[in-house]
Design a protein that fits this description.
Elements: E1 9-12, E2 18-22, H1 25-28, H2 35-41, H3 58-71, E3 76-80, H4 83-86, H5 95-110, E4 114-120, H6 126-130, H7 138-154, E5 160-165, H8 167-175, H9 187-213, E6 222-234, H10 240-263, E7 265-266, E8 274-275, E9 285-296, H11 328-337, E10 344-349, H12 356-375, E11 380-386, E12 405-408, E13 413-416, H13 418-429, E14 431-433, H14 434-445
Parallel strand pairs: 2-3, 2-11, 3-4, 4-5, 5-6, 6-9, 9-10, 10-11
Antiparallel strand pairs: 1-14, 7-8, 12-13
Helix pairs in contact: 7-9, 8-9, 11-12, 12-13, 12-14
The structure holds beta-D-glucopyranose (BGC).
């Protein structure tokens, strides 16, 4: 007998929808040695005074975390491979670490979960960083070599691939805003990084297809992007200056990278309009991460830096990261992304909050907006919550709680939060009930 108190499903998602969560290597594994760990060890960089260290020890505890993901009903799991483990010295592969990731992949699949593998999530091997990191054009070849190695070594276990997590966020935080290592603020370097990451993304697409496409016994792999998106909205819709600036930022931040990938025309900030045919259409699906709206007041300094966001009455609050909760933004972005004519995967969406009920609210109300876009014809295939477990939130440290599952860093114990079960109920029903909607709409209105 269905439990009446759970209500009726009023927003049904498409059959076969991928539900799950995402993590990254550096933020969870522990024991990594790369440009971040070296930068952190110098002290004074992480807001809560921590260093990543053993993080959540996912490297050793992955079976337990995957059991939890399974128990929470997830059918998809996004994680990243740590380049510095695989190629600790230039051109030298570490077979033991390859075996480790093969074990992780087997453990995911054994639980009936689909893995989505990201090849780069903000961290670089020390030798690569030492040669100038992503500013150096050689980074494109280095990444290509790494990608083709992993396609050969892991390809039998992976169907869904993404090359580089959030190229624009990485380039801005590391080379424009000077927040992440190497803490540079230089537009020329920013542009080189973005260009090199674009070329690397396209190469990864071709490498993976060339290598795995040859194997006729397996189904064709899908290789996508993971693009960070902000919903830029004019603070005052009636002010043409606010409107122009919001529209400029949308093109600069959201659209230019994807336009280049779609057309092969490399416009600013990545190029001067030259055509590179290998870049054209080099993605099977469009992965995107959505966290927030950014209200734009012409000339204001808050732009792209979330420390002091502007808010309006229609905001559902500010998270501990300083991001505004604005579910409708995901709807507008999906509607816009439709113009790229590719399947859409929401590869990250989440909130860092102390009050877990607000996490459940955020999940339900974002999914309501995703459903609205699907109903209007958008081809959305997946929703992955960030993150399965609390983890190391880059320059903010450990005090930002994004997890469906709480982590006690002293004991490495895990405890699913109530929001994890709200999400589980959604996954089990493949939809949202009237009871959920009413409850969280009310909470949002408070
Ligand atoms: C990144 C994650 C990060 C999350 C929350 C995304 O931009 O991919 O690594 O933890 O945002 O800030």
């Amino acid at each position: 007998m269905p439990d009446k108190s759970e209500g009726n499903v009023v927003l049904k998602f498409p059959k076969g929808f991928l539900w799950g969560s995402a993590i990254s290597a550096y933020q969870t594994e522990g024991g990594n040695n790369n440009q971040w760990s070296v930068w952190e060890s110098k002290g004074g960089h992480i807001k809560d005074g921590s260093v990543c260290g053993m993080a959540c020890d996912f490297y050793h505890l992955y079976e337990r975390d995957l059991d939890i993901a399974k128990e929470l009903g997830h059918n998809t799991f996004r994680f990243s491979v740590e380049w510095a483990r695989i190629e600790p010295k230039k051109g030298e592969w570490n077979k033991k670490e390859v075996e480790h990731y093969r074990d992780v992949l087997k453990a995911i699949k054994k639980r009936g979960i689909t893995p989505l593998v990201t090849l780069h999530h903000f961290t670089n091997p020390l030798w690569m960083e030492g040669e100038g990191g992503w500013v150096n054009p050689k980074s494109v070849d280095y990444f290509k070599r790494y990608t083709s190695y992993l396609a050969q070594e892991l390809g039998d276990l992976v169907n869904l691939w993404t090359a580089i997590n959030e190229p624009t966020a990485y380039a801005s935080a590391s080379y424009m805003l000077g927040k992440f290592p190497p803490q540079v603020s230089d537009m020329d370097q920013y542009q080189s990084v973005l260009r090199n990451m674009l070329l690397a993304t396209a190469n990864a697409y071709h490498e993976i297809h060339d290598i795995l496409g040859r194997n006729i016994t397996r189904s064709a792999p899908k290789v996508g992007t993971v693009k960070d998106m902000q919903y830029f909205q004019p603070y005052d819709e009636n002010n043409p200056k606010d409107r122009n600036e919001a529209s400029f930022l949308h093109k600069f931040y959201n659209a230019s990278f994807l336009d280049a990938l779609k057309t092969g025309k490399i416009t600013p900030p990545m190029g001067t309009g030259e055509q590179i045919d290998t870049v054209k259409d080099a993605f099977d699906f469009l992965g995107f991460n959505y966290y927030s709206r950014m209200l734009i007041r012409a000339g204001a300094r808050e732009v792209l830096d979330a420390d002091k966001p502007l808010t309006r009455k229609d905001s559902l609050g500010i998270t501990d990261m300083g991001y505004e909760i604005y579910p409708e933004g995901i709807y507008h972005l999906i509607k816009w992304l439709k113009s790229y004519s590719k399947p859409i995967y929401i590869t990250e969406n989440g909130v860092a909050v102390q009050d877990d009920e607000r996490r459940a609210m955020s999940i339900v109300l974002h999914l309501e907006q995703v459903h609205r876009a699907i109903k209007e014809g958008a081809d959305v295939k997946a929703y992955l919550y960030w993150s399965l477990i609390d983890n190391f939130e880059w320059d903010s440290g450990f005090d930002k709680k994004f997890g469906l599952v709480e982590v006690d860093y002293r004991t490495q114990e895990r405890k699913p939060r109530p929001s994890a079960y709200v999400y589980k109920a959604i996954i089990e029903k493949n939809g949202i009930t009237d009871v959920m909607l009413n409850k969280y709409r009310k909470l949002a209105a408070r």
